[in-house]
Amino acid sequence: MQRSSYDTATALLPLVGGPGNVTSVAHCMTRLRLGIADRERVDAEAVRAVPGVLGVVTDGDTLQVVIGPGAVVAVTAEFETLLDAAATARRAPGDARPDGFGADLAARGAELKAARARRNATPVKTALRRVADIFVPLIPALIGCGVLAGLNGLLVNAGWLPWLTPALAAVASGFMALISVFVGYNTAKVFGGTPVLGGAVAAVVVYPGVAKVTAFGVALAPGQGGVLGALAAALLAVGVERWCRGRVPDALDVLLTPTVTVLVAGLATLYGLMYAAGLVSSAIGTAANWLLATTGPLAGLVLGGLFLPLVMLGLHQALIPIHTTLIQQQGYTVLLPLLAMAGAGQVGAAIAVYARLRHDTALRTTIRSALPAGLLGVGEPLIYGVSLPLGRPFLTACAGGAAGGAFVGFFAVLGDRVGATAIGPSGWALFPLLTGNRGPTLAAAIYAGGLLTGYAVGFLATYIGFNGSGTPGDPSPRRSR
User: Fold this and answer.
1) Given this model, what pLDDT does residue 408 score?
2) Active-site residue, from 28, 145, 244, 398
């Protein structure tokens, strides 16, 4: 690991309350996600000031530290190493230090966490957080397999390397064919069940032998219901397992609990959940296509304009099941290219701020360092380092995203749908993943037009409406604080 990753992790640990205040550690593409026992012990402003930190988002008992792609992986590993060292020190004899390691402080932290969870965990927030916890760990595989699928499609269309394309297709498709198993595993893990039982029940959804089973007078199809069916199956498995744990004698628990869990949840999946989830999945695909075919510009305007606030709050992760369902059904998600326009508006706004504030050397340096990531679809550096602190540029960036989304949505009304074969990348990085009902070339051209529209509107709206002080017409180059 690089020394800077260690320095960042070392600086963050005391600012989040020390090892005793951290209940869990995870990361997504750009954020270090920490479970916090007592938020009062977190110095959020000091965390924001740590070199390498781009922003901070608090969500209930979870602290999201925005670090950026690549770097977040290294910092998370160093952070976990520091926690492991702290845990080892806690187990050492005579460890009665007031540094957050004591058992009494850990118990107090657990009490505080439970009390805060009761105050802040609304059903909607809890559901969204758990959905993110289930699907975020799958994003690296979705990106890797999606890029390979796009590359394979280009090779097939061009007639190149015919000896390699079948192998690439197998590598790219294997994960998507079994993604339901991973969803089931993570679902059981997140909801407190045995992960492998969740995966075992979810495997029923993709097992080829389900074609011999009839439910509601119709033969089932392997994969029917997709990730939604797997999610429902694993949730049921967790419920059945908990019911068994409270009733089965300890001597028989190891034998009866997993057997009853797999049997009951598996049969319910075959004779109910797969059929119902299939209807819901089909409805999602039909609704997405109808929305774009009938209200394309309006739908694009709304989705592109509102996505930045969702990213800022970390709620965009809740859209992953919808994207995944569309990819399973149609081979691509038509929503991601629309949402990606938000990043284009952000880039245009940042360039306008760069042009406006010629005397603000620090801000211009931030923009120069964050702009490459923004062009590749990673918006957090520009959001937390530029537009959000300034206020008005955040709104004009949303306007740029809305314009880009309306542009792509307009072509959807004409019958030209643009989709992405995987989720995760956006901006220029999305080009290898683009496809559509009329081929990848036209899809790439429409998407490029949307990006240019987002850049232009984001730039113009910001340049005209922003003067550095929050007062229209004031030529001062000062930043609002």
Assistant:
1) 94
2) 28
The enclosing H or E element of 402 equals helix 392-413
The answer to whether position 136 is within a domain reads: no
Instruction: Answer yes or no: are the C-beta atoms of 383 and 307 closer than 8 Å.
Output: no
| pLDDT tens-place string over residues 353-405 | 999 888 888 888 888 878 888 888 877 778 877 888 888 899 999 999 999 99
The encoded tokens of residue 157 equal 């269309």
- Quick one: residue 216, left, alpha or beta (phi over 0 = left, psi -120 to 50 = alpha)? left
Is 122 in a helix, a strand, or coil?
A: coil
Q: What residue spans of 215-273 are helical by DSSP H?
A: 226-245, 250-268
pTM greater than 0.90: no
65 DSSP β-pair partners: 32, 56
Domain that holds residue 330: 301-465
Q: What is the pLDDT of residues 16-63, one digit of tens each?
A: 888 888 888 888 777 888 888 888 888 888 888 888 887 787 776 788
Q: Which two tokens stand for residue 42?
A: 């977190």
Contact between 179 and 422 (Cβ < 8 Å): no
Categorise residue 476: left if φ over 0, alpha if ψ from -120 to 50, beta otherwise: beta
The CATH number of the domain holding residue 18 is: 3.30.1360.60
Q: What residues in the chain have per-residue pLDDT under 70?
A: 1-3, 60, 89-125, 313-315, 467-481
The reply to whether 331 falls in a domain is yes
Q: Is 28 a catalytic residue?
A: yes
